[in-house]
Design a protein that fits this description.
The complex is a heterodimer of chains A (about 190) and B (about 425).
Chain A: H1 9-21, H2 31-43, E1 54-56, E2 59-61, H3 63-74, E3 78-83, E4 86-91, H4 95-100, H5 103-106, H6 109-122, H7 127-145, H8 152-162, H9 168-180
Antiparallel strand pairs in A: 1-2, 3-4
Helix pairs in contact in A: 1-3, 2-7, 7-8, 7-9, 8-9
Chain B: E1 4-9, E2 13-18, H1 19-26, H2 28-31, H3 53-83, H4 87-103, E3 121-122, E4 127-128, H5 131-142, H6 144-148, H7 160-167, H8 189-202, H9 211-217, E5 218-223, E6 228-234, H10 238-256, H11 259-280, H12 296-303, H13 307-315, H14 320-328, E7 333-337, H15 344-356, E8 362-366, E9 381-384, E10 392-395, H16 396-399, H17 401-405, E11 412-416, H18 421-434
Parallel strand pairs in B: 6-9
Antiparallel strand pairs in B: 1-2, 3-4, 5-6, 7-11, 8-11, 9-10
Helix pairs in contact in B: 3-4, 3-8, 4-7, 5-7, 8-10, 11-14, 15-18
Classes of the chains: A mainly alpha (about 190), B alpha+beta (about 425).
Amino acid sequence: MSDTVGIPWDRYALIADLSQRLVGISPQFGKTALIKLVFLLQEVYGVDCGYDFELHSYGPFTSTLLNDLDLARGLGAVSVDQVGYGYQIKPAAQTDAVRDRATAFMTKPRTTHALDSLIGLYGKLSARDLELRATIVFVERDMRRKGESATSEALRTCVGELKPKFSAEEIMRAIVELDKREHIRMAS
Amino acid sequence: MENMFEIRDPVHGFIRLNEWEREIINHQVFQRLRRIRQLGMTDMVYPGAAHTRFEHSLGVMHIATRMFDHIQRRRERFLQDELSYDDAGLKRDRVLVRLAALLHDVGHGPFSHAAEELMDTNPQTGRPYKHEDYSAAVIRFLMKDVIRDHKFNENYHITADEIADFLNQQRSAGRSLIWKDLVSSQLDADRADYLLRDSHHIGVAYGRYDLERLLNTLTIAIDEETTSPTLAVEDDGVHAVEALIIARYMMFTQVYFHRTRRAYDRHATLAIKELLRKHQAGSLPNPDVFPPPTSLKNIEAYLTWDDWRVQGMICSGLAGDHGDRLLNRDHYRCVYETPEQPRPADADLMQQIQQRLGTMPWFLDTAEKSWYKFEKADEIEVLLRPGLADETLVPLGIQSAVVHGLKAVNQSRVYVTVGDRPLALSRVIELRDGQ
C-alpha cells in the first residue's frame, strides 16, 4: 500500500518562494495578493498547485491556500505581520530550508519561467487590481468551458455584475491588457 | 395567505416551510438524505452519532434564512445604495438562499465524506469531483420540475440551473453570489448548524457557541482593499465568532479527527470501493469510483448508493476485508502520529516509518485529506464603527488575539492491523530513538 507523507511541501515552498520574490516589488504582499497570484499561476501559466478555486463576490478564492499559509508560517517558511488593517507576508528563517524540500517542483523550468513572468507582469499590482484580473480570467475560462462566446463586451458585462464597484472602463482596460498578453482568449 | 408547515427540530425548535419547500423536501432525491448519515461511521466511537443529512439540511436552510434576515434588517440601506437591491430583488434572493441551503447536500454519497475519496477525476480540472458537483448535477438533472413548476415560483422564476450555479459558484449567479458565503464560507450556516447538531447528538459540549449573538452581529460591508462587498461581523460580535472558531477547533480535534473515527472512515471508503468494483465491473471505464456527475443516467446510478444499500451489502459479506472490519468493529490501530503542527523532522520520521512497515498492510491518514479541516479562519472580516462614515473592515486575526494565537492543524497518522501492531510499534520506537 502506498501513500505520501501528507505534507504538501510544493505548496509551502511556493508560498516561501513568492515571499522572497516579492520583496521590494509588491506594494503589500498580503493574503489577497497571495490568493490571486497563485490563482493566476495555476490558471494562466498552467502550473498545477493543487488548489480548487471557487468564485466568490471577492473573486477566485480557496481557503486551503490560507490554511497552507498558516502551516508554512508555523514551519518558519514565512512571517505574516500585521500592517495597518491588513497583513504582510515576508521571508523568514526557514524560507530556504522549506524551498529545498520541494526542489523538484521549484526548479522545474516550467515553474521558474512561470514565476518569473508572473512576478514581472503582476507582482507590482495592488490587491484590488489583482482581484479584478483574477476575476476576469476566472469568468473567461468559465465561458469557454461552457461553449459561450467570450467577447470582450460579454466578459465586461459579466464581470461588471460580479464587481459593481469597478467602472466599465476599468474592467475593459484590464480585459484588453490580459488579451494582449494572451492570458485570456477573446472571441472575435 | 400561504399555508405554512412546521417540522420539529432537536436543535432549532420548529422549522417553518411553505408548500413549495415541502414538495421539494418530499421529492425522492431529498428523502434519500434520510439514508445518509451526517457523520459516517462516527457511531463506532460516539454511539449517538446516528443523525442524517436530512435534518442537517433543514437546519442549514433555517440558519441561512435567519442570517439573511438579520443582514437585511441591519443593512437594508447599504444593500439598496451599494448593490442596487430593491424589495423584489431581496425577496427573490431570500428564496434562492433558502432553496440553495436546503439542497446543498443532496449530492452526498454513502457515509457522507467517506464516499468522497471515490469520486472520478474531472477532466476539466484534473482533480476529483466533489460532492458539491454531484449536488449541482442532482439539482439540474432531477429537480427541474419540482423547482420550476410550483405556483409560488411565479413571482420569482427561479430555475434548477440557477440554484446549481449558485451552489457551484458559477458566475451566472451574478450579484446573488454575495449570499453564497451564507452557505459556504468560514462563517456559514452549514458550519453554524453542524457544530450544534453534531454536539447535540453525540452528547458533547465542544461544538456549542452563542448562535443568537452571532446572528445579531452579522453584517455586510465593502472591503476597502479590494472594493468587494463582503459578509462580516460587527465588532461587538467578535467574541461570538471566537467561540464558534474554538468550537470548530474542539470538534475537529475531539470528534471529526478522532483517531478511531478516522480509521473507520477509511475502512468505509475501502469497503465501498470494493462494492463499486464488483458492481460496476465492465460497465464503467473506472469501476472503482462512482460514475461522474455528467449525465442523467450517471446521476441516477449514483443516487442508488446510500447507507442502507451499502450496509446491507456489508452484512451480506460482499464488501471484502474492510467491510468485515466494519461489521466486527475490528479497525486498524494507530501506531504513530505527528504533532498537530509537524516540523520537518516529524515528516521525515513519518516517511521512514512508512518505509520500515515493509509489506504489512497499513494506511496513512492526514488532516490535509480530512474533509473536516481545522482552518483558523482569520480572514473573517470584522466591521469596526458600523454605520458611521468611517466604518472599516478588519480581518478577525488582527482583531482577535484568540484567533491569532490558534494554529491550523496538519497532523498525520499511520495505522496497521491489530495483529501487526506490536511489530510496527517496535519499529516506530527503534526509529524514533535513533533520531
